[in-house]
Design goal:
single chain; about 140 residues; alpha+beta; Beta-Lactamase; 5 helices; 4 strands; PduO/GlcC-like; PduO/GlcC-like_sf; ATP:cob(I)alamin adenosyltransferase; GlcG_carb_metab_protein
Length: about 140
C-alpha cells in the first residue's frame, strides 16, 4: 500500500486572524484597504474590506496574495528581479494576476509555503505594513 504524504495547510481561522490584523493596522494608519488571504493553491480563505475602500483595490489585493503564494516571495521584490533578467521582464508582466509592487507577502511556516496575503488601498509601503501586521498576528 502506498504511503500518503501529509501536508501543512493554512487554516481559515489563521487566514481570518491575518486579515483582521491587517485591517487593524490600516485603521492605525487611517487608510481604507482590501485584504485577501489565499492558500498555497491561490484559493481565497479570507477577504475583508473597509467601507469606502477603492473599488479597484479589491482585485489588486487578491492578485497580490495570489502572486505571493505563487512564487513565495513579496510582490515588492519583483522590480529588482525583473530588472536583472530581460527575458523575465518581457514575459512575466503579461501574466494574468501578476503584481510587481508592494503589499503582497508569502505566508510560510517552518520553511513551508502555505499561502499569501495581499493588501491594497494605501501606498505600497502602507499596504506592506498592513500585510506584515497580518503575518505577525499568525506567527506570534
Amino acid at each position: 500500500m502506498p504511503q500518503l504524504v501529509g501536508r501543512q495547510e493554512l487554516a481559515w481561522q489563521s487566514a481570518l486572524t491575518a486579515a483582521q490584523a491587517a485591517m487593524a493596522k490600516a485603521d492605525e494608519l487611517k487608510i481604507k484597504i482590501h485584504v485577501a488571504v489565499v492558500d498555497v493553491a491561490g484559493l481565497e480563505l479570507a477577504y475583508l474590506r473597509h467601507n469606502g475602500a477603492f473599488l479597484h483595490s479589491a482585485q489588486i489585493a487578491r492578485d497580490k496574495a495570489y502572486t505571493s503564494a505563487s512564487f513565495g516571495m513579496p510582490t515588492g521584490k519583483w522590480p529588482e528581479v525583473l530588472e536583472d533578467n530581460p527575458a523575465l521582464k518581457l514575459g512575466f508582466p503579461h501574466q494574468e494576476r501578476f503584481i510587481v509592487f508592494g503589499g503582497g507577502l508569502p505566508i510560510e511556516h517552518q520553511d513551508m509555503l502555505l499561502g499569501g496575503i495581499g493588501v491594497s488601498g494605501g501606498s505600497a509601503e502602507q499596504d506592506e505594513a498592513c500585510a506584515l501586521a497580518g503575518l505577525e498576528a499568525i506567527n506570534s
